[in-house]
Design goal:
By secondary structure, the chain is of the alpha+beta class. The protein has 14 helices and 18 strands. The protein starts with 5 loop residues before the first helix and ends with a strand.
């Protein structure tokens, strides 16, 4: 049964997918086939995280007729071959950015756990949806190649995953020393890492549980909305784990719901907006969500409170993906914001909503940059609101089923 705003949300889904297709390499003669640009203003750099959104997008395209089943199947196969045979990795963890044509590591960027995680969630979803022998074989090879244990270490008396690895001392985030970089000691967008690693059969049950319980959980509230918040409290970190995971149906062994946590975080962000929107020309009663996006001064990650330093951070920029990303947890508030933004001039176009806008300066600013992971978030959250095609596929994966069992999560 269609909801009142079904057609509008489906249009967001469709236009988001079009953007991703227009920024994907389909050159049959290049090793980078199937890779997607990080954004439209730098035409040689692909994001490995976006690959996960795009692989998931082929499920949606098949279901909604944006592509034929056979075309989607072909694109998935070729993309998995690119990932397995051509994209550089360290112990199975992919380089964050690669050349879209050659698939070679871009400059000296890091081999990233979180970007690999986003990628393999797409791999896993496509594997379960298409049920093709070659796809199954390639997906399993990609997944089994990931050496989860090699990224585990003791930090401050707790077992934690490293965030990344860089062999170059002068490389991204390396800070003058080659090797492993930082660790997931805090709450961020890595929640499904613990489930998938637990389901990989590489970790014993105690270590899997120790890792899940090993990151800090800061409890705070704003205007009565209580939740575990990330250090900076930017909205996307609560949304990304739920793009593939059926969080509404599962709680962890202590009865905690990451879905409810994201819902409360969103309400907290919205409450902050209602208290502060008159301070900014761009803000309105309808819009909400301090998150990451392009801004008049480049890419920025904005923060709400509560946060570790107790201060919000924004320049007044509004990013539509923050609200589209709330469609699953907070549909009433999200749709109200979507309808408002769609009524504004210059915000809606060929690819749906632009990445961001800002009216604080002398002239209105509209982003010309389309960041593909932002569109990926819009694509998957729209689909979850409409029909859950990607979520249903992902939740059937043996790694997910086993991981939830190992971590003793319960279905509700």
């Amino acid at each position: 049964m269609k909801t009142k705003h079904h057609d509008l949300i489906e249009e967001i889904q469709k236009r988001s997918f079009k953007l991703l297709m227009d920024l994907t390499n389909f050159n049959e003669n290049e090793k980078g086939y199937g890779l997607t640009l990080d954004h439209n203003l730098k035409l040689n750099v692909a994001s490995i995280a976006t690959t996960g959104f795009v692989l998931s997008g082929y499920i949606i395209a098949s279901e909604y007729g944006y592509l034929s089943y056979d075309d989607a199947l072909y694109k998935v196969k070729k993309t998995l071959k690119t990932l397995y045979y051509h994209v550089p990795h360290y112990k199975g963890f992919f380089a964050h950015f690669v050349d879209i044509h050659t698939a070679e590591r871009y400059k000296k960027n890091e081999f990233s756990t979180i970007d690999t995680l986003l990628c393999i969630k797409g791999v896993m979803s496509a594997q379960m949806y298409f049920k093709d022998d070659e796809i199954n074989d390639l997906a399993n090879k990609i997944l089994k190649r990931i050496d989860w244990k090699s990224f585990v270490h003791l930090h401050q008396g707790k077992y934690r995953f490293y965030m990344a690895y860089n062999p170059d001392a002068d490389g991204d985030y390396a800070q003058g020393k080659s090797g492993f970089i930082f660790q997931w000691h805090m709450l961020a967008e890595q929640i499904m890492m613990y489930v998938i690693a637990a389901g990989s059969n590489q970790l014993d049950k105690k270590l899997a549980l120790d890792l899940y319980e090993g990151f800090e959980r800061n409890l705070g509230s704003y205007q009565g909305h209580q939740y575990y918040y990330s250090p900076g409290n930017t909205l996307f970190i609560y949304q990304y784990p739920l793009c593939w995971f059926d969080g509404k149906s599962w709680i962890d062994k202590d009865g905690f719901s990451w879905f409810e946590n994201a819902k409360n975080a969103t309400l907290g962000h919205r409450a902050w907006n209602l208290r502060n929107y008159k301070k900014y020309k761009t803000f309105s009663k309808e819009t909400f969500g301090l998150t990451a996006s392009s801004t008049p001064n480049g890419y920025s990650v904005f923060h709400a409170i509560p946060s570790v330093n107790g201060k919000p951070l924004t320049d007044g920029t509004v990013a539509p993906n923050a609200m589209v990303g709330a469609l699953t947890t907070n549909p009433k508030e999200a749709i109200k914001a979507i309808l408002y933004m769609k009524s504004l001039p210059n915000i809606w176009g060929e690819y749906g909503f632009i990445d961001a806008y800002n009216f604080e300066g002398n002239e209105p600013w509209y982003s010309k940059k389309y960041i593909t992971i932002d569109k990926g978030l819009e694509l998957l959250m729209s689909n979850q609101y409409l029909s859950k095609d990607v979520v249903n596929a992902f939740m059937k994966h043996p790694y997910v089923i086993k991981g939830l069992e190992v971590l003793e999560w319960k279905k509700i």
